[in-house]
User: Fold these one by one.
Assistant:
Number 1:
Amino acid sequence: MSTSPTRKHWLRNSFATLSLSVLLIGTAHAGPGGMIARAAFETLPGRIVLGCLVILFAPLIIYNYILEKRAAKRALQDLNYMARLSPAFDWLRLRERATDCFQRVHSAWSDEDVSSVAGWMEDWYWQNQQLVHLNKWRSEGLVNVCNLKKINSIRPLLFLHKNEEGEHGNSTLVLSITANMQDYLRERNSERIVEGSKTWKDVDTVWTLRLRDGVWRVANIEEGATFLTYVKLVKLVPRIEETVVEYGNQH
């Protein structure tokens, strides 16, 4: 029994809500953000298990899918509203910026030097990634092979309009990005794989971009299963018109 990449995406995220991802998928250790593309469900038994779980958790999968669709709709509506006030919020430009960030960060990650993309990431974040992951693996004689084939989709999950540090400063956009890639951790002086596999697979990640001085930069990268945390926050986001009024009152 097999299932489509889209259903796999729903299912992976549904597992997180049930805490089954730890049992069935395993822990992530590499890739930008400190994660590695998971190797679960690549074998025939794994695909059979996946197919059975799709049936078992179908109601939850559908519910999560609906939540994500509603969150994306709200985010796009608010971005379109803000785009009339500033080109920084134009969705086409934002998607292009997110694409550039994704590609450049992965390229720098493969080179084991994310300082080369400092202008595309917040300072504290790229420094943390370099020290906590890349430098640590280098000292342990490990290297993360992270090859990107293509970006399949970029979907907004949550948009928060802020008015800090100047015009629209600290506005935040959370995106769900799915890409086909190869991601594994191996010994530097051999081909022995420590984590992951050489299989090309669709990988879901959640990227947070933050606006500072008119430029969107990467502020965080998380596993795709964290998407539900953000879509649940949508109901707490104030009406976009209220945030603009607040901004106007501050000036």
Number 2:
Amino acid sequence: MKISTGKYFLSDSFKSIGRNRTLSLASMFTVAAALFIFGIFVLTGVNVSTAIKNVESKVQVEIFLKDDITDIQRSDLEAKINSNKDVLKMIFQSKSDAMERFKNIIGKDNPGLISGISSDILPTSFVVTMKKPEQISALISQVTGMPGIDTIENKKDFIEKIVTITNGIKWIGAVVFIILGGVALFLISNTIKITVYSRRREISIMKFIGATDWFIRWPFIIEGMIIGIVGSLISTIVLFYTYGFVVNKVVGDILTMIPASFIFTYLVWIFLACGVVIGAIGSAFAIRKFLVV
């Protein structure tokens, strides 16, 4: 494509947007709304996935022992756990260790709650860390039923529930994005259709004097792409400040979340690509039937 031809296409596209500014703005804000909602779901998914990975790396199985467990039973259990090649670390937690842990969790902010509590009421246990969370079930099956075990506690079920919720959020986000993306396509298509219809005589003359379909088509496709790009930039800016406010003012002291810079580092390129594709497809559909003369 020659530079002069490219300038003509761009100039024609901007003129067309100016002539139909109301519909063009509606299309831009629809694209922005679709991408904004899509971005919220993406950020939610990324934050939850990051949190799950952090939790998974710390997932442990705690095997609580009966008070009357014998030394032989405890040694057998310890040997059984150590025989599992997927065990990363195993710690024996005595009653006094359990009390210290209890103090760190509960007593730090509520010292009155633990005053007078004896460590004898707390059970001894083996705290086992696996190489991967999915290996927990095999270990539990391996030691279940062994003498001296009181209960076995693990957070695997909790993590699996979070994963299920996260996947649900991703699916909902995808469906909402598809619906709003369809609305954006419809609006952009109608915007281009109005432009094309108002210039149908000009298009017919251009066809008769030998202009190719693509020469006629490009200004309209570029118009749709510009609408999509502007919409994606609007959504990026709004999402950046909205998410930044939430992170800094609302949950900054409660949760650790990915920084707002993630939006301009990664999401903006996805938004721009989506905006260009939505705009180009909407324009291509709009002008298709008008090229048949």
